[in-house]
Automatic annotation (TrEMBL):
It comes from Limosilactobacillus reuteri subsp. rodentium (strain DSM 17509 / CIP 109821 / 100-23) (Lactobacillus reuteri). This is Uncharacterized protein.
């Protein structure tokens, strides 16, 4: 059993000060992804009027003023490290809250808020182990990872948190958690021995469920971008135009126009189609990232979208697609009036 060591706030900050900005952002994305996964798995808000729409993390929270990011705030005005975005199922109202105000502003039971906080604490412990490993001189196992990639060892593991964390951490040279490192080593040794694994029906179902969860999280990120567009005065027609262009961009060079619009549809598709639908959704996210990036109107959301694409090994090069330029013009007009 792994020994659990919890860092104090000051100890955590001392190690974070040693990290580069891209390493801090990668850790932040790992934390956000893990928390989103818990929300989807535990259905915390099932018995309430509220649905979970997303989460934003300020990786620079400890540095109140001297940092490159934007501060996050609760609807009450208090500065936040973790900002949860909730939407009322009956009225459509959106709330931007810290965990301590779930009960006060959204009437969410204290027990549910405690469960969510316990999840955050568990994830923080996991992150502390990574920081301690970094302080001890450990870095990302590049050789092992590259061997597994070249040998297509992730072919049936691309929906796993391990694969996505490896993509994030390999880029910034952060060490893996011990359990992740052991899982990576297991894959490495299997490939070295020429062991090929044939997926069982249960494993295929689990992989499809993992892909559906990833799709859902990407969809929530896109929802946040559309919310920002509405907040900044674009008309219904403008919003519809941008959304249509994002779908056209996502489906470029594909033989089919089929596109899933609800994660529940994944239960009726094959594993191949599930992978294809996730790729389409990630490309749609890339569209929104590109239309926002030049204006820096949503710096935190853009950083998170960038990390999501990196985690899925999706290229983020700039496109000359007409719909992107059209959306950029619409945004520029609204922000110069």
């Amino acid at each position: 059993m792994d020994k659990i060591i919890a860092l104090t706030r000051q100890q955590r900050e001392d190690i974070l000060q040693q990290l580069r900005p891209d390493q801090v952002q990668a850790l932040s994305e790992f934390t956000r992804y893990a928390m989103l996964s818990r929300f989807h798995t535990h259905h915390y808000l099932k018995q309430t009027d509220w649905e979970f729409q997303g989460m934003v993390i300020d990786p620079w929270y400890q540095r109140q003023h001297d940092h490159p990011g934007d501060n996050l705030y609760c609807d009450c005005g208090r500065r936040l490290k973790n900002q949860f975005i909730l939407r009322s199922r009956t009225t459509g109202q959106q709330l931007f809250l810290g965990i301590s105000h779930f009960q006060q502003h959204a009437s969410i039971p204290h027990k549910v808020a405690r469960e969510i906080q316990a999840g955050i604490n568990e994830i923080n412990l996991y992150m502390d182990s990574i920081l301690l490993a970094y302080q001890a001189g450990r870095r990302f196992p590049q050789e092992i990872f590259q061997f597994v990639v070249v040998q297509q060892g992730f072919k049936n593991h691309e929906g796993t948190i391990l694969y996505q964390r490896c993509n994030l951490f390999s880029r910034v040279d952060l060490p893996l958690h011990q359990r992740d490192y052991q899982d990576l080593q297991t894959l490495y040794h299997q490939l070295k021995q020429g062991v090929t694994h044939r997926l069982t029906k249960e494993e295929i179902k689990q992989l499809r469920d993992d892909i559906a969860t990833d799709w859902r999280q990407v969809d929530q990120q896109i929802t946040m971008f559309n919310y920002l567009l509405r907040q900044h005065g674009l008309t219904v027609q403008d919003l519809h135009r941008i959304k249509s262009n994002s779908i056209n961009y996502a489906l470029q060079r594909r033989k089919t126009r089929f596109m899933i619009h609800d994660y529940k549809q994944f239960k009726d598709v094959t594993l191949t189609k599930a992978r294809s639908q996730l790729a389409i959704k990630l490309r749609q996210l890339s569209f929104y990232l590109q239309i926002f990036q030049p204006n820096e109107l949503a710096k935190v959301q853009c950083e998170q979208a960038q990390q999501i694409l990196i985690a899925h090994k999706v290229s983020t090069h700039k496109s000359h697609f007409y719909g992107i330029k059209e959306a950029q013009v619409l945004l520029k007009i609204k922000y110069t009036i």
